[in-house]
UniProtKB/TrEMBL annotation:
InterPro entries: MFS (IPR011701), MFS_dom (IPR020846), MFS_trans_sf (IPR036259). This is Major facilitator superfamily MFS_1. It comes from Cellulomonas fimi (strain ATCC 484 / DSM 20113 / JCM 1341 / CCUG 24087 / LMG 16345 / NBRC 15513 / NCIMB 8980 / NCTC 7547 / NRS-133). One of its GO terms (cellular component) is plasma membrane. It is found in: Cell membrane. The keyword Phosphoprotein does not apply. PROSITE patterns: MFS. The chain crosses the membrane at residues 17-39, 51-71, 83-101, 107-130, 142-164, 170-189, 201-224, 230-250, 279-300, 306-325, 337-356, 362-381, 402-430, 490-510. Residues 17-445 form the Major facilitator superfamily (MFS) profile domain. GO terms for molecular function: transmembrane transporter activity.
């Protein structure tokens, strides 16, 4: 396994350690994708319900989000390397539970709760360990590799899960996940732990408020995504808890008492803009990742495998550009690369808008996806390093926790907003077209409106034809025609989310260009956090 990485090794690039950290990030991101594409098979094999499995998925996202800021502090108290190991073991527990589960209860307890707690430890500790084990250009390269690994996992996860679930078993997919975690743990001796020298007191009230804030906001977003009720009340609880957390932290800081997160982090323009840009990037990725697979599967009627292959230009260009940009770290200003990244993202998404109504195969999307993927690759190669490199070792866990929380929230928010807009546009368009139809009589028009009000969803024309089998042929043809016209418009509306967020990112990048470039480590602390 090799000797532990020491200070001398940290100054260079330990390639094996970099790959192991990237593998850990890949597993973390791909886990939920595997679960999403396995829902039907899990329901069938365990004799449970779709809503039960979906609840487990939502619970895992909720637990990881609610405790991620607490997890960053736990890393300080027990050691970042130990928190990293505990996070990996939590994920391994969840993967093994899925491999051998005989009931939904095991999935809820071991995959959702234990795995969710593992994620809350793993994500901030991993970023802290990159910060502590690599410096200078090597640190930028590893941040780029880890970021690229996360992005490609989000893009190819459904493809991997779809292939394994279709041709082998969903249990094999999770067993392989456990094997990857075992490989990552086999190289743990290469990780150099960085001792925490700050105050070791625990801010219990801050921890509770952070869990309520993140949990309330993310639960509200998840409920919104599923079309549930009480969204406003949940978001309000999260927002109130967030305001209370900010006031609590400021009050504790004024009295020089230990805090969960040092408010001084947010006084740094570099940190604020870095976290904001990270969240925008993830909102854009979430919006694209709900709109594009739906287009491929519902409009072009591709199966999961063909849809995944059609998205390969996005994921592969993202991965390749992130690695290339990371390898050439230091030759360009980070702000310039972030500006180029958001600009390419905007150009790629804008090019998709006119293609969507005309595309007859996934090949029509290839060039815009390469452009958008190249932009995302530039972003993932820069933003983590930009945000965290100026932070001192004492504060890096807190900063990584905030950075991770912003990214997790951004991805959930992008998925929810784009999905809600898409279904809303579908319902409005379908109802409008049905009302204007000369083929459908008034009673049929009302039936269409009621059906959409109860269960608006995108359907392929094949699915719709099966549903309308008992209707007269002219009614079938009319509703299929309306569906054919309305779906691309609804998908175009969903793509406006990553487009608008990309434009906001361009504005943020212009601001970044007016700031000084971050300087690594605590030497920059006076300038960055003074």
């Amino acid at each position: 396994m090799g000797a532990p990485a020491g200070p001398a090794a940290a100054a260079g690039l330990d390639r094996r350690l970099a790959v192991l950290l990237a593998m850990a990030m890949f597993v973390l991101v791909v886990d939920t994708s595997l679960m999403n594409v396995s829902i039907s098979a899990v329901v069938r094999d365990l004799g449970t319900t779709v809503s039960g499995v979906q609840s487990a998925i939502a619970l895992e996202a909720l637990v990881s989000a609610a405790f991620i800021l607490v997890g960053s502090k736990v890393g300080d108290l027990v050691g970042r390397k130990r928190a990293y190991v505990l996070g990996l073991l939590g994920y391994a527990t969840g993967a093994l539970a899925m491999t051998f589960a005989q009931s939904l209860t095991a999935i809820v307890v071991l995959w959702a709760v234990v795995g969710g707690l593992g994620a809350s430890l793993l994500l901030p500790s991993m970023q802290s360990l990159v910060h502590g084990n690599f410096t200078g250009p090597a640190q930028k390269k590893v941040y780029a590799l880890v970021g690229a690994s996360a992005s490609i996992a989000a893009a190819v996860g459904p493809l991997i899960g779809g292939f394994l679930t279709t041709y082998l078993s969903w249990r094999v997919a999770f067993a392989l996940e456990a094997v990857v975690i075992a490989v990552v743990l086999s190289g743990i001796r290469r990780v150099r732990d960085v001792p925490y020298t700050g105050d070791r007191s625990v801010d219990v009230v801050g921890a509770v408020l952070s869990a309520l804030a993140m949990g309330g906001i993310v639960l509200g977003v998840l409920v919104w995504q599923e079309g549930g009720e009480a969204v406003g009340a949940l978001l309000a609880v999260g927002a109130v808890a967030l305001v209370a957390l900010v006031r609590w932290l400021l009050r504790r800081e004024r009295t020089d008492r230990p805090v969960l997160i040092d408010p001084g982090l947010f006084r740094s323009p570099l940190f604020r803009v870095g976290v904001s840009q990270q969240m925008l990037q993830q909102i854009a990725l979430g919006g694209a990742m709900i709109a594009l697979p739906i287009f491929l599967q519902m409009v072009l009627e591709y199966d999961a495998m063909a849809a995944g292959l059609s998205l390969a230009p996005l994921s592969l260009s993202m991965f390749a550009v992130a690695l290339l940009a990371g390898r050439r770290a230091g030759t360009r200003r980070p702000a310039d690369l972030v500006l180029a990244g958001f600009a390419l993202l905007v150009v790629g998404i804008a090019a998709l808008l006119p293609v969507v109504p005309r595309a007859t195969s996934g090949w029509a999307l290839a060039l815009p996806l390469v452009v958008a993927g190249s932009g995302l690759g530039l972003l993932v190669s820069q933003l983590n390093n930009y945000t965290l490199s100026p932070v001192s070792e004492e504060r890096v866990s807190e900063a990584a926790g905030v950075n991770s929380a912003a990214g997790s929230f951004g991805l959930s928010f992008g998925l929810a907003v784009a999905g809600a807009l898409m279904l809303g546009a579908l319902a409005v368009g379908f109802t409008s077209q049905a009302s204007a139809s000369s083929v459908l009589d008034p009673e049929q028009q009302q039936q269409v409106a009621r059906a959409l009000e109860d269960d608006a969803q995108l359907m392929s024309n094949t699915q719709l034809a099966e549903l309308l089998a008992d209707e007269p042929p002219d009614v079938q043809d009319e509703i299929v025609r309306i569906n054919t016209e309305v779906r691309p418009r609804a998908l175009q509306v969903a793509l406006l989310v990553p487009l608008a967020v990309g434009l906001a990112g361009v504005v943020g990048a212009l601001r970044m260009r007016r700031l000084p470039d971050p300087r690594p480590g605590s030497a920059a602390e006076g300038a960055a956090f003074g």
